[in-house]
């Protein structure tokens, strides 16, 4: 019998692999898509039976790094770097009117955390960050199974929690003041994992066909007709997702 | 000791309770955030899920939900909940609807179906069955959850299902031997019928069916003496599982020690059910909502801990059970404990041939002019089949010719409304014994109720 901690860590690895599979499948409604769904269901059950509330979280009730936010001036160029050259899989993205940005989220093989690319499209705090610093690391987002318990622990350690927002049940968040984190903006979130957005592409995000609503990317305009199948041997969904 | 899951069974009580506490708090928050039912229900309360931290917080602050609440919510949905627009739904499970109040509809998604059989696997594996063993299933497959559920329990435990819901009792008896079954899953009443059939056929399964390890009972209470005799005749451990559509499978079940044991003087005694606490949090409560003490009986209230297309949070089951202290079984597992054999209804519902039957529903059919009163009896016939007879009385002065065909019409009406066949006889009003309470109109004389020491 394997050690429970090792089983949980291996389960979290497997969960990330399944998420990648499902991201590549996109909105496949055929046998592969349903198989991916069933594998995820079984893996979720396996995780529960080895004592994990969240299959993506081997640490149990603690926090886990969900994504790193990076501010960029040219989103397409950044997509080439983080997607095509570094092998990321596009899993989410869209415009956010309130923040005045457009974003792309990439996941990576073997990594639990994602990269979020943020491009300002209107004046706002992200635009000011870009002007002041020229881009780069903007924030770290940690997920907590229990935000209240996580914030209790952080404030108990002397950190200052600011901007607690619990208005949206599906996305409750707070920030740690950078004064206490040696300059890094840290966001702590209690929310459901973001499922890969079916059919999302860099081009469609840049055409503003996707928007963040209720903390989920939603397609706001109809997808264009399917382009001719690529001649490449790579799976079409994967090629499309990386563009 | 058979082990179904070394991680869960290897936890100590504090670890298991910690897991249940975190999972229960998360279940409430998830339901409040994402479930249309609970958003609707909690909107009428001042519940603040973000303030919950412990099981005690959940007990004190989260309101309980009833079948009536769920049905009220369903009526607000398109098609009464039967036409869900959610494309992630993969199955629809309905409750039986024999209460007359309506049928609850439970949408199931891929996560639900992946976990559907897992709790039942604990019951089988703890009883000593192993992957590859054959298990005879006698539960019908329909739009209720039972059929899909029992299939999945076999898949989760690696067992080979021998589907026997079609065919006669003689066919099933033959197949038990033919397939060398290691287990059979049935209601106590059906096991009794099978026992009589085996005896009549000259079978001696304790010696001539050595493959049989366990008999898995569910669906109705049974006496310790009957269970003891049944175990001896079949040469198998009599086991029990309790669950419901709301709990997405078994929520408590016996271990290798079975559902009945014997005192030093040989008197049979009901044994212990283990809560599958890591999947379903079970509360046993007094009518005022306070928890009962170990040794006391109260209503079962369940919270499904796994994410589900239809979360279940503090759902009042209207079933009652006797709570036992943790560790009562003596097997060493860290779970909560309950008395086997005695789970019954808080209300006056009866289980007849696997159907939930409420006297109110029969009252509604029978107590119409010119019928002024009736008495009912559930009993085991000479072949062990559950049978129901009903005696009715007409108002004084009712012309006999006007009611000549009424018994047969009422028989059809009961079958249509409640789903069971009854034999109906007529007596004079004065011959009907007086009863103060309507539930006393019914007597249960089934053989499986034979008692020993009827406690845990």
UniProtKB/TrEMBL annotation, chain A:
Ranges for region Disordered: 216-243
For the keyword Metal-binding, the answer is yes
Signal sequence extent: none
Q: Enumerate the spans annotated as VOC domain.
A: 64-191
Q: Where is the composition biased (Low complexity)?
A: 231-243
Q: Name one Pfam family in it.
A: Glyoxalase_4
Which keywords does this Swiss-Prot/TrEMBL entry list? Answer: Metal-binding
Report the protein name in the record. Answer: VOC family protein
UniProtKB/TrEMBL annotation, chain B:
Alphabetical list of SUPFAM superfamilies matching this protein: Acetyl-CoA synthetase-like (SSF56801)
Provenance organism: Phytohabitans maris
Give the InterPro entries listed for this entry: AMP-bd_C_sf, AMP-dep_Lig_C, AMP-dep_synth/lig_dom, ANL_N_sf
Per the database record, which ranges form the AMP-dependent ligase C-terminal domain? 354-446
Using the record's annotation, list all stretches that form the AMP-dependent synthetase/ligase domain: 128-302
Q: What is this protein called?
A: AMP-binding protein
